[in-house]
Amino acid sequence: MDSKIIYASTPKENEKLPLQLLEKALPGRDHIVIFGAHIPTKGLLDRELDILLLSPSGIYIIELKYWKGKILNTLHNLQKSIRIQWPDGRVQDKNNPQLQASDQGRILRSDIDSKLIRDRSGGTRFRFKQPIVPAVFFTVKKSELEFTVDEARSSVPVYTMDTIRQLWENKPALYTEQELQSLINMFKIEEQKVEGNSFPEAIDEYRIEKLLFQRAHYSVYKAESEFGRKVFLKAHKIDPKLLKDQEQVLLDITKRDGFVSAKLEGNPYVLFHSNNFRFGQYICSVTMWQDHMTLEKIMKEKRSIADKIRILKEIFKAVISFHEAGVFHRDLHPRNIMMQSNGEIKCMNFDFSRIVGLRTVKQGMPDADSMYLAPELKPSEDALHQLDIDQHTDYYSFGFIAYEFLAGSKPYESDFKLSHLSLKEIHPEIDEELSFAIESLIHMTQSERDFGWKFLRDEWGI
């Protein structure tokens, strides 16, 4: 049988994308994820399991946690609770997910054993060949959650999005397809239909060829029209429950696009989408396809420092041209910057931009957890962070991109760990003043970024 996810209950919004990524990570055959199955417990309400993974290599019960920040304790099975520090600095006590997974494993084993006894006369042919394996799955990248595991006192393995395949890879097969199917049948699940971020086959007249990238608010695809024209297609998915609100967001974004288009008309660094249109549950826009490479891909290539600085100069010129026209991009990101086959730099996705003289539109803000996002754009209860959204937000994003491009790694991986090596320490051939200027751009305080921006304008003669 084909690998898939069976939804016994509806996942929360922050669980949908990790579940889709988990599904993509599964081998093509005989790996079944059951999400949200309910099992009875003695004298209590039914217990909902996060993830039950049935695979040839074993039966796994997985505790799902969408945590970011830093776990202050060393993880092991002998503690009831752990303490986590969130990216905004808050500290909170949480139940130990390793113990939760172990507890769920025991309840599940008891439930399956009782089902086997009841179903024995019906010819069920399943028997355990090893214990149910509990595990913890943090549905983030390892860089987004700091933690350490005391292996000597931990019988429950811990995984992130980067390592989850280790749960089933390179392990001998214990169960046949028929045995796994009989176990699925035992649960008698009424499968739920889940609307999430799944990739559509077609939108309006456009056939989707490839997902280019996905953000919290939208996806960008390579698509082809019915007449064979290649395009970028950007699609915001609408939540039916928030239809009225999201239509207002569409109106705000459309108005903003109109103002930005007028301000940047003829700008050689801009790649604009067409007017927005509505198709079913999607808010969409298209633009002509350009053979290109995103800066995200370019940053992974081996290039000389001189070549990297040449590319950064062109991006710097682009951002200055936006500012001189009274536009602040606010969402500069390696995926939003591309180099065409002729070497020209283009920037796209101005949905979240600010136009001088107009009020800041809060709807449709970029991803709050993007490391490229200036700290003053991120939600905060601290009034000191509610500063004017001006050119300093782009200073920060450019500085973060420049540091990562030159250093080969991000200056820091989380908002609570800000220490980093200087560019000069990483690459001695980089001029010390240039190193200091770029690092000043990623300062938490807006005014501290001015020095770096002015230095680069003078140094690069722009």
Automatic annotation (TrEMBL):
One of its GO terms (molecular function) is protein serine/threonine kinase activity. Residues 206-461 form the Protein kinase domain. The keyword Glycoprotein does not apply. The keyword Kinase applies. SUPFAM superfamilies: Protein kinase-like (PK-like). It comes from the Bacteria. Residues 10-131 form the NERD domain. It holds the Pfam family NERD. InterPro entries: Kinase-like_dom_sf (IPR011009), NERD (IPR011528), Prot_kinase_dom (IPR000719). Transmembrane segments: none annotated. PANTHER family: RIBOSOMAL PROTEIN S6 KINASE (PTHR24351). This is Serine/threonine-protein kinase PknD. It comes from Paenibacillus plantiphilus.
